[in-house]
């Protein structure tokens, strides 16, 4: 197909050249006008260079498409990373959730009972949804602990002056 495109372009160029230059016989095709073997060799060389250049452009385009597809697949794979829950405190790292513990690299460390990543995600989503129904601002999450109390995950919003203990 690429050779046909190059041939078509060369035919169009030849037609335009014939139309512009007086004295060329309009009814003769390009092959009959060029009887000199050197002229034919030059045109063949030009045609081969055009075909090669077109193939290189197509290959570069296909490499770009493959790269874009790989990037998209990597992004989709990271979105499908099952039940990962991003830490609401630091908003960078994934939480580690075990039956009796929720922790993060940022220092979040909360004792829980029978917690799973799915339950934690559901709790965070429902709490954020409930808050967003009455306030347009994003709440903040902090870890609090008293003198004798265990650590707790607190959601608070300074705009609507609300707070809630999640864990």
Short description:
By secondary structure, the chain is of the alpha+beta class.
Q: Count of helical segments?
A: 4
Mean of pLDDT: 77
How much of the sequence lies in strands comes to 5-15%
**Estimated helix fraction:** 40-55%
InterPro entries: RIP, RPA_interact_C_dom, RPA_interact_central
Pfam families: RPA_interact_C, RPA_interact_M
GO biological process, one term: protein import into nucleus
Domain RPA-interacting protein central: 5-75
Structure explained in plain terms:
With about 170 residues, the protein is α+β, with helices and mostly antiparallel strands. Among the domains are: about 40-80; about 95-165, no CATH class. It is built from 4 helices and 6 strands, in the order αααβββαβββ. Strands 1-2-3 form a 3-stranded antiparallel sheet, with no helix packed on it. Strand 5 and strand 6 form a beta hairpin. Helix 1 (about 1-20) packs across helix 3 (about 35-80). The protein is rod-shaped and about 100 Å long. The two termini are about 65 Å apart. The model has no long low-confidence stretch (mean pLDDT about 75). InterPro entries: RIP, RPA_interact_C_dom, RPA_interact_central.
């Amino acid at each position: 197909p690429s050779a046909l495109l190059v041939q078509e372009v060369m035919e169009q160029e030849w037609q335009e050249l014939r139309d512009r230059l007086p004295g060329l016989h309009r009814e003769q095709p390009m092959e009959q006008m060029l009887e000199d073997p050197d002229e034919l060799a030059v045109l063949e060389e030009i045609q081969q260079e055009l075909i090669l250049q077109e193939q290189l452009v197509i290959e570069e385009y296909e490499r770009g498409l493959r790269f874009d597809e790989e990037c998209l697949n990597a992004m989709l794979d990271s979105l499908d990373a099952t039940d990962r829950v991003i830490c609401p405190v630091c908003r960078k790292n994934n939480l580690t959730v075990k039956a009796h513990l929720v922790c993060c690299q940022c220092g979040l460390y909360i004792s829980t009972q029978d917690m799973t990543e799915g339950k934690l995600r559901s709790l965070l989503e429902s709490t954020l949804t409930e808050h967003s129904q009455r306030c347009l601002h994003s709440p903040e999450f902090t870890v609090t602990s008293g003198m004798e109390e265990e650590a707790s995950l607190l959601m608070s919003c300074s705009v609507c002056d609300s707070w809630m203990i999640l864990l």
